[in-house]
């Protein structure tokens, strides 16, 4: 693993990815943050050694290097998912590359369904904890101690300081920002009514198909993490209606402006 990571890191350095400070992973329908970035280099995932290729139509599949609010950033415009058939190690490979490039702060976004019925579609939720229901995780197998410890602590997978700063930014911008627990399911199908009831019983406020693997690896490597869910649908098991991907993407894109404003404000304080 370490050799593969170093190979990708060395390639990116030859393409100008020098001394980035912050990494960002953009989820479904959330790619327009790059419009705020002073672009330096853009590379398709397929051109980067060791990177999978995104197979989801709403994920651009590009790694971007540039400047945002005076900070040098690496942005994944689109991510990889377990349901695409990739291994957990493939899904999280870019996070390991980001860390080896020198990034210590990782910001993650996703589109998610609202399990907590007090949360409405189109709103933002800051993740303060998660439940891994993917039936797998990227640390299974032989541990490479050069990347992280065998038994990483997960008592605070999302950095309290970053969460506090996000709350301050939302207050300044007068943006509603909910807080909750994110549950990761395998997908690609959406959940049944019984599954939504189960998730609510388990304590989940929102559900999606990503984020948790990347957060586990970021913690394994000692990175500070914050994550925002854009809530795209309301998962009321007693009033469940069919949801199309196009509708999820449309809601995500409508709410994206608030997430972009929040991230831009956050960057002025990092």
Task: Write structural notes for this entry.
The protein is α/β, with parallel strands linked by helices. The protein has helices spanning 2-14, 88-101, 160-173, 193-202, 212-220, 245-267; strands at residues 22-26, 38-44, 62-68, 71-77, 105-114, 124-132, 177-184, 206-208, 224-234. Helix 1 crosses helix 2 (88-101) and helix 3 (160-173) crosses helix 6 (245-267). The radius of gyration is 17 Å and the shape is globular.
Write a concise synopsis of the structure shown.
This protein has 270 residues and is α/β, with parallel strands linked by helices.
In total, the number of strands is: 9
Report the biggest beta sheet as strand number plus sense, adding barrel if it closes.
Answer: 5 strands, mixed, barrel
Order of helices and strands: HEEEEHEEHEHEHEH
| SS field, number of helical segments | 6
Rg result: 17 Å
User: Which structural class should the secondary elements be placed in?
Assistant: alpha/beta
Which spans of ≥5 residues are poorly predicted at pLDDT below 50? none
- Measured as a percent range, the helix fraction is 25-40%
**Tell me, what's the shape?**
globular
Q: Hey, roughly how much beta strand do the residues contain?
A: 15-25%
Arithmetic mean of pLDDT: 94
The rounded distance between the terminal residues' Cα atoms is 30 Å
Q: Provide the spatial order of strands within the biggest beta sheet.
A: 5-8-7-6-9
């Amino acid at each position: 693993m370490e050799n593969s990571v170093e190979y990708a890191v060395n390639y990116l350095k030859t393409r100008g990815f020098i001394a980035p400070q912050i990494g960002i992973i953009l989820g479904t329908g959330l790619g327009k943050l790059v419009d705020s970035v002073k672009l330096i280099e853009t590379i398709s995932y397929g051109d980067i050694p060791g990177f999978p290729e995104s197979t989801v139509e709403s994920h651009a599949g590009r790694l971007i290097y540039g400047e945002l609010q005076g900070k040098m950033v690496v942005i994944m415009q689109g991510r990889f998912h377990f349901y695409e058939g990739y291994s957990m190690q493939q899904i999280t490979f870019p996070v390991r590359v980001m860390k080896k490039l020198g990034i210590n702060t990782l910001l993650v976004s996703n589109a998610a369904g609202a399990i907590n019925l007090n949360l409405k579609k189109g709103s933002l939720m800051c993740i303060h904890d998660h439940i891994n229901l993917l039936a797998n995780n990227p640390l299974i197998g032989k541990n490479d101690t050069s990347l992280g410890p065998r038994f990483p602590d997960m008592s605070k997978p999302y950095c309290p300081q970053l969460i506090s700063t996000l709350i301050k930014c939302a207050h300044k911008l007068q943006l509603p920002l909910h807080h909750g627990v994110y549950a990761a399911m395998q997908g690609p199908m959406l959940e049944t009514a019984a599954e939504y009831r189960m998730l609510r019983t388990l304590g989940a406020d929102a559900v999606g198909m990503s984020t948790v693997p990347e957060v586990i690896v970021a913690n394994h490597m000692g990175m500070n993490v914050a994550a925002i869910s854009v809530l795209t649908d309301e998962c009321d098991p007693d009033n469940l209606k069919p949801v199309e991907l196009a509708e999820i993407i449309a809601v995500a894109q409508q709410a994206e402006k608030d997430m972009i404003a929040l991230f831009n404000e956050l960057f002025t304080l990092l």
